[in-house]
Protein: low-specificity L-threonine aldolase
Amino acid sequence: MATKVVDLRSDTVTKPSEAMRAAMAAADVDDDVLGADPTACRFEAEMARIMGKEAALFVPSGTMANLISVLAHCDARGSEVILGDDSHIHVYEHGGISTLGGVHPRTVPNNPDGTMDVDRIVAAIRSTDGALYYPTTRLICLENTHGNSGGKCLTVEYTDKVGEVAKAHGLKLHIDGARIFNASVALGVPVDRLVRAADSVSVCLSKGIGAPVGSVIVGSKAFIQKAKILRKTLGGGMRQVGVLCAAAEVGVRDTLGKLADDHRKAKVLADGLKKIKHFTVDLTSVETNMVFFDMADPRITPAKLCQALKQRSVLAMPTSSKSVRFVVHYQISDGDIQYTLKCIEEAVEEMLACDAKSERCSTNGTS
Structure:
């Protein structure tokens, strides 16, 4: 049994580094709701600069970041947002844009690479001729990287094209950029260029960046002013939030440079899984820090595999009745990857042996 837990459930499971803890302890703080927390102000200004936008706002979570962004753009009830049918906002955020904002989602199918066909986006935009019957389209949302597509990256060319569509129709473009830095590193495109076409971007700080809490929203000064009011409305205004921003500052400083290594380790993991005949994995789909693989043997289920791995101190998440997801982060070492592959092989052998034993017992009992 390993003394260390190898946690591959998500990149949200990282623990604050010693440098983060020290920065949190030493943070210069004040009341951020009053706009007076110096660490928060400094961090927000730096994130705005990095992302190439006028202003930024720290919020407690990515879900709140996306909700605030959608509500700020769709500030009239009966507005409609075009977004992917397999996007995080649509699938995993409790329908907040509808239940809290009165915003209607108009879904377009996500392609395997996380994109939506541009012609389908255009077709989904409501005509003003139907204003008596239909919601009013005000916003398009993209997700980069696209989680349910395996962490695929949306290219700058694609994002620019969707931005042109939005602008031509008088719409806004929001990017759920929870892992936008992973996309930037994988594509070799500066993050500010990657999101240039967007009117707003949400960036998660507690995923690849490794901070314990929080996200930021970036956009124009006018947009962030609206976002600040909505943050307060939703209960997201916190006081000495510089304690959290200090950890995020360290994450941006220390962890962004490690994302490429996370991607390399994910590819090593995927390559190892490919060699196990009981699984199928598309190596070309592993662009960033996520690895999805399917069970090719009906005797092995995601739930059983994850339970067997847990007994060996490797944590993972089933994503469907036939697939499992691993997410690599900066606290996963090369040794952890090799240990995980060894544990998977052992778990498979154990499950197949148990299945064969059960089959023998069943055969003997009926003879």
Q: What stands out?
A: The two ends are 39 Å apart (CA to CA). The chain has a mean pLDDT of 95. The CA atoms of residues 113 and 152 lie 6 Å apart.
